[in-house]
């Protein structure tokens, strides 16, 4: 339920504060006084798209602050989304628009986005204006309203149809992709076979090119290697002047004094260790020298193999590992092509199962829709009697689709006849503006009666095009609806304004070349009588005042009854 709305520098509104009643809060004023602009500010606070043109001329920014009591479901979602409230704490939305077009949003004091407000806005308030009445002319909207009226079972069935349709569509597309362009598929298969045979025939090993390159460098430098090894062996193992002999002499000399002190003993052991390592190194050099032999045939074989690897890398990848991966992919492509018939049979079976599931889900949804259509018709016709459409008829016509779609197996369209004896026809062909507004009101009441109302219902001049006894009947219906839901209503009709639990008047004034819209609450009996009289006749003369008193007294009695 909405609690408060505070507006600063939005459009022509300099500053306004509105406290909402639990029942009906009514806004009236002269034509062009800004009633719809006030609801525009509310819509802005609920995330409606807007630009810098909403900022009042001369102001740096427009600000709208909204306080409300969220439903239990919305309170839980706010908590999950990081906007938790303490028990019993009211929620707040603050949205700003700068003169440069920059928007900012805070939910319960924490940064958020306009997109998030649009997600949760429908659970806070549902704005039903003249544009909403025009949506009644769209059969696609009729189907959505019918499913909404049918309740959770229908919405779940609709979701099941959508999911089944997506699965069937995926199977169908996969099958079409598999069977499309046989010539291209055959060419890709042949290319994969050639690549696989060429790569597998080469018997590649990971890292092979690196090992071969290292061996080639050795063979190309074998003479240098042999000469260096000889010099190294001579330096280590020569009988006179060799490093091993010198280290042995040093070890003998140090061993003779090792027992004198720890440091001398450590030196002797180090000399012995160095001699041992030098002997090991000399032996390793001798073995390498024995193996240092140039083999032209081996070098030729290595060069040929590296040339083969380079050709494969140029064709299939920059390294042996990439060539091996290409071969694995080629083998997968070959297996996939050779298993096409089996895969196609599997997909056809899956598609058949998915289409059967879709057909069954659509059939269940159709049954729920037809039951809901009959119940909705009865409920709306009952409402017609309350809003001066007692002879009207309402029906839901179904048209089967050639193929089950994501929304089911049929289209739905609302049919209406205003008078007895007339055939029911599509709303777009028969309903005048006033009739359309009343049909919308009947729909809203019917839908509200079929479910718990999640948020506030906001009527923006839904009374357009009606007057007299019809206006009186519509006003009474708005009053009755306000007993079970919070209602906000912008109206130009006295017959609706008399049902206000809280009544605001919007005034437009001009000063220093700037127009300003102000919002004032009227709560005294005299103020309300004067405003109702103005709505009735345009001025507050005695006859209009008497009529206003009569209307207010009658509606007050109806509310108390």
Folded structure, characterized:
There is one protein chain. The chain has 561 residues and is an alpha/beta fold. Among the domains are: 1-124 and 484-522, Rossmann fold (3-Layer(aba) Sandwich), CATH 3.40.50; 196-337, no CATH class. Helix content is 58%, strand content 19%. The protein has 20 helices and 15 strands. The strands form 3 sheets. A 6-stranded antiparallel sheet has the order 2-1-4-5-6-7. Strands 8-12-13-3-14-15 form a 6-stranded mixed sheet. Strand 12, helix 17 and strand 13 (487-490) form a beta-alpha-beta unit. Helix 9 (222-237) packs antiparallel against helix 11, helix 12 (296-316) packs across helix 13 and helix 14 (340-384) packs across helix 16. The two termini are 24 Å apart.
Q: CATH superfamily of the domain at 1-124 and 484-522, please?
A: P-loop containing nucleotide triphosphate hydrolases
Percent range of helical residues: 55-70%
**Mean pLDDT, all residues:** 84
Low-confidence stretches: none
Q: Please state how the strands of the largest beta sheet are arranged side by side.
A: 2-1-4-5-6-7
- Total count of helical runs of at least 4 residues: 20
The total beta strand count reads 15
* The CATH C-level class name of the domain at 1-124 and 484-522: Alpha Beta
CATH topology label of the domain at 1-124 and 484-522: Rossmann fold
What's the N-to-C terminus distance?
24 Å
What overall form do the CA principal axes indicate? elongated
Please identify, by name, the CATH architecture of the domain at 1-124 and 484-522. Answer: 3-Layer(aba) Sandwich
Measured by DSSP, the beta-strand proportion falls in: 15-25%
* Radius of gyration, taken over Cα atoms and rounded to an integer in Å: 44 Å
Major sheet:
6 strands, antiparallel
Structural class label:
alpha/beta
């Amino acid at each position: 339920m909405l609690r408060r709305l505070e507006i600063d520098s939005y459009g022509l509104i300099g500053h306004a504060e509105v406290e909402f009643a639990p029942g009906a809060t009514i806004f009236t004023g002269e034509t062009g006084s800004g009633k719809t602009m006030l609801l525009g500010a509310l819509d802005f606070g609920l995330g409606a798209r807007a630009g810098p043109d909403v900022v009042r001329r001369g102001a740096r920014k427009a600000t709208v602050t909204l306080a409300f009591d969220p439903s239990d479901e919305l309170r839980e979602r706010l908590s999950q989304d990081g906007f938790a409230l303490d028990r019993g704490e009211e929620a707040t939305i603050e949205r700003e628009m700068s003169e440069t077009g920059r928007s900012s949003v805070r939910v319960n004091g924490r940064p958020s986005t306009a997109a998030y407000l649009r997600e949760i806005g429908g659970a806070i308030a549902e704005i039903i204006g003249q544009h909403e009445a025009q949506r009644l002319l769209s059969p696609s909207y009729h189907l959505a309203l019918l499913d909404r009226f049918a309740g959770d079972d229908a919405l779940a069935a609709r979701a099941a149809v959508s999911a089944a349709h997506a699965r069937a569509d995926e199977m169908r597309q996969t099958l079409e992709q598999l069977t499309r362009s046989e010539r291209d598929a055959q060419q890709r298969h042949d290319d994969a076979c050639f690549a696989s045979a060429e790569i597998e025939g080469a018997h590649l090993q990971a890292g092979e090119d690196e090992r071969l390159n290292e061996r080639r460098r050795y063979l190309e430098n074998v003479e240098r290697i042999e000469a260096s090894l000889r010099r190294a062996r001579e330096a280590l193992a020569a009988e006179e002047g060799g490093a091993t002999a010198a280290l042995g002499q040093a070890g003998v000399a140090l061993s003779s004094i090792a027992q004198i002190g720890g440091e001398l003993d450590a030196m002797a052991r180090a000399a012995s260790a160095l001699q041992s390592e030098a002997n090991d190194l000399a032996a390793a050099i001798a073995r390498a020298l024995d193996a240092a032999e140039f083999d032209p045939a081996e070098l030729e074989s290595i060069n040929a193999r590296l040339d083969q690897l380079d050709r494969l890398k140029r064709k299939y990848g920059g390294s042996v590992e990439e060539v091996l991966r290409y071969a694995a992919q080629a083998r997968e492509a070959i297996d996939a092509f050779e298993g096409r018939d089996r895969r196609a049979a599997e997909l056809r079976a899956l598609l058949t199962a998915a289409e059967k599931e879709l057909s069954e889900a659509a059939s269940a949804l159709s049954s729920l829709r037809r039951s809901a259509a009959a119940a909705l018709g009865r409920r709306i016709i009952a409402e017609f009697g309350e809003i001066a459409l007692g002879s009207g008829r309402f029906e839901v016509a179904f048209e089967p689709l050639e193929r089950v779609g994501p929304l089911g197996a049929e289209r739905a369209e609302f049919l209406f006849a205003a008078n007895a004896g007339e055939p029911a026809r599509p709303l777009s062909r028969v309903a005048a503006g006033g009739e359309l507004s009343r049909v919308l009101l009947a729909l809203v009441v019917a839908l509200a009666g079929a479910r718990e109302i999640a948020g506030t219902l906001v009527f923006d001049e839904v009374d357009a095009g009606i007057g007299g006894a019809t206006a009186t009947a519509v006003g009474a219906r708005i009053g009755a609806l306000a007993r079970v839901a919070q209602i906000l209503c912008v109206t130009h009709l006295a017959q609706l304004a008399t049902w206000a639990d809280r009544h605001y008047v919007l005034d437009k004034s001009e000063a220093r070349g700037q127009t300003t819209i102000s919002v004032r609450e009227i709560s005294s009996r005299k103020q309300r009588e004067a405003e109702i009289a103005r709505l009735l006749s345009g001025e507050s003369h005695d006859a209009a005042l008497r009529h206003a008193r009569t209307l207010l007294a009658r509606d007050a009695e109806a509310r108390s009854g």
